[in-house]
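Hi! If you just cloned this repository, the fastest way to understand the data is to look at a raw example. We've pasted two of them here, unedited. The first protein comes first, obviously.
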Amino acid sequence: MSQSLDRALTLVNQLATGPKTLDELSGVIGVHKSTTLRLLRTLESHRFVQRDGVHHYRLGTALFDLANLALEERDVRRASEAALRDLNSRLGHTVHLASYEDGEVIYIDKYESRHQMRMYSRIGRRAPLHCTAVAKILLADLPAAALQKVLAGMEFPRLTANTIIGPTAYLAELERVRANGYAVDNSEHEDFIHCIAAPIRGARGEVLAAVSMSVPKVLLDFDGLLAHLPDLLATAEAASAECGFVSR
């Protein structure tokens, strides 16, 4: 571990016990105050540290954000595992679990297809926002202001003949997702694969993650895939119940 990183992590650990002065923190890591100040300013720029008045420092909001994201991701993966594994076992198709994190949709779990044709997706990979069913589920649940912020930075490259192009068409698609309670990727990301996705909700009704089932078109046409929508929705409902959601 580099010396600077070691010192910065030591500062964060010290601030976990309460606000500290520059003198106190310099004493802990055994360096001049100017060196400590440079480290603190770097940590402050990333919101890991914030100044508390003139002379004190305390932990910043980034640590709490990261902790909440880590706990949510770990909990939804664990709580959803049985339902997603059962869906994969019964139907044999690829099942994904994805979550939304600061403007990105990330695959956080995957159950491989039992058929010969497999997808190249992997845990930790980002899902394109404009053309994947999981992203549509997750973005459809965002507050209007947050959604507009994401849209402002989105690009809409045409990946297939069915790819949605432009924010107007995409917003209309999200309205359909909200109305239907599920999303589709009708060969919008890859022209030989299509996908359906549904939300997994938490105790407050918020969307914690999206579960999807992806199938090569040579195995099932789009109508055949939609015939499995009740299975997917039942899986999402079972996973949501394990996450504390009570349907009304």
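Ok, and the second one:
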Amino acid sequence: MRLDYPLKTGRLLLRPFEPGDLDDFHAYRSRPDVFRYLYDEPVSREECAELLAKLVSDNELAEEGQRLALAVHLPDAGRVIGSTVLKWRSEKDRQGEIGYSLNPDFQGHGYASEAARAMLALGFDGLGLHRIVAECDPRNEPSWRLMERLGMRREAHFRQNEIFKGEWGDLFVYALLKEEYERAQA
């Protein structure tokens, strides 16, 4: 699936990352509070530049297993405030996964919801997916509340299913079916 960029929402532009996004990208990728509930750790500017170089080419979904990682650009601020991802998990079973990460300085304004809604639309309307999931640490209440605002339902709570940052961690799994998505759009 090739897209016409940028994707426009009410207040945001979703587009492939560009090398010039390094300052904005590093501004949130270097923050420990962003990674409290994520597998990765904050990165140095050099590590961030390496990651950004890889993300620059994440601009289409052509086959199962690929991910589309887009910069969340806020024109009013003139900067990238986060990222959003759509992963194509299974072509045969038409499954996908979304994710999002936002600079805490811009949280609480509905930007993550807006970006995630756009990724759901890409998955269901663009790729023809049947089911899209999202996962988070149960302690990350803002993340699972966002999933619920998107109309996703909690399907699983895996208790102590893995060692996460040195301790047993739980996992919430949320999902949305295409028919549920379409009903919510009507």
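That's it. A detail worth noticing about the second one: The chain has one domain: 7-184.
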